[in-house]
Structure formats: C-alpha cells, structure tokens
Structure prediction request, 226 residues.
Amino acid sequence: QVQLVESGGGVVQPGGSLRLSCAASGFTFSSYVMHWVRQAPGKGLEWVALISYDGSNQYYEDSLKGRFTVSRDNSKNTLYLQMNSLRPEDTAVYYCARVLRSHFDSWGQGTLVTVSS
Amino acid sequence: QSALTQPPSASGSPGQSVTISCTGTSSDVGDYNYVSWYQQHPGKAPKLVIYEVNKRPSGVPDRFSGSKSGNTASLTVSGLQAEDENDYYCSSYAGTTVLFGGGTKLTVL
Prediction:
C-alpha cells in the first residue's frame, strides 16, 4: 500500500536550517508530482511547494520563495524540503502528499518543526 | 493568492444534513473543476473525501457529496453521524499552485 513517511523535524533556533525527508513506498514514486503542506499549531492547512515528476520544475508559496527548496531523488524514492532562515512562524507540522491529477490522495503522518530560541 | 473562504464552524444534529461552503474567485474555484475536500481528525493527517468537485474516493460514504456554483464550492454531509465531527478543508488545485480554505469545524450536536 502507499506509504509516505516524513522525518527530520525537530527544534531549531530562528535563522537556522533544517532538511525534511519523505520516504515513499508502495507506488512508482517517479510517476507522481509531490507536494509539501504545513499546518501551524491550531491553524489550517497551508500549501508549501510542489515538485514535478522528474524534479525539473518546482513551485512555491510566494512568501517562502528563496528560503525553502524542494527536491527529490527518484532513485531513493525520497522527497526533500530544505528550509533555511527559519522563523518562528514556520513552526508547523509538515506533511508530504502525493497528487493524483488534481487532489492529494495520500498523505504522510507529518513531522513537527519548532522554531524557537 | 488569498486562501479560500470557509465558515469557521458548522453544526447539525444526528441524521440532519449540513452544508459547508468554500468561496474563491474566478481565477481558482470558478475557473477549474479541481476542488477537493479533506476531513481531518485532530492530530491526524487529512483524508480526502471529495475530489474534482463532486467525486467520492472509494471507501467514503455516499453521505458525503460536493457541488459547485460559480466561485463557490460546497460540501454536504447528509445523515450526520457522530463520527463526522471533524475539521473539513476545501482546496483548489491550479497546476502550479494550491489554495486551501481556512477550515470548518463540524460539530454534531
């Protein structure tokens, strides 16, 4: 069955960096566009970024451009999110999600990122 | 782009129907039939309940239905059950960007 497992979350100081990973299994990873979505504590879902099948195209939520970078390694069936210059408002659970045409049909369990001094 | 607009809360008694709205613009909800709805239990990942406005994934009860008129999409839950009490989010997918609604907390009275 489809499985997405995020890792790499933790506590980081403001201005720091963190790299999240999402290990995929149970499907042909290289055939799917993948996304990152986050959810701040007690808040709603916020789209973060997407990456094309082969990694050649990436798109970001406007306010995150320049700080976050999404990438993938299809040989390792893994999606990444490199987060730099982190701010307290980046504190959230980060989910990776698979897209099937126009909707997210599979989600990981999420990994918590806390930006605090 | 701004988030889609949902009412923060909705409620109904068991057996009743409740409709949650999701308002966007002619550039997102109104322009694409790529509206989906997600149910989220506290502390859990979202779960798809409706996609492409009115399609139901296998395993989702037919009590859940979706529709769209102009720039507003709607999720209707009929025959409310206690297990339907959760947060619901709408989403509009536009290829290179995704918008979410702010979420609606559905309470079963």
Notes: Chain A has no helices and eleven strands. The two ends of chain A are 40 Å apart (CA to CA). The interface with chain B takes residues 35, 37, 44-47, 50, 59, 61-62, 95, 99, 101-105, 107-110 of chain A (CB under 8 Å). The mean pLDDT of chain A is 96.
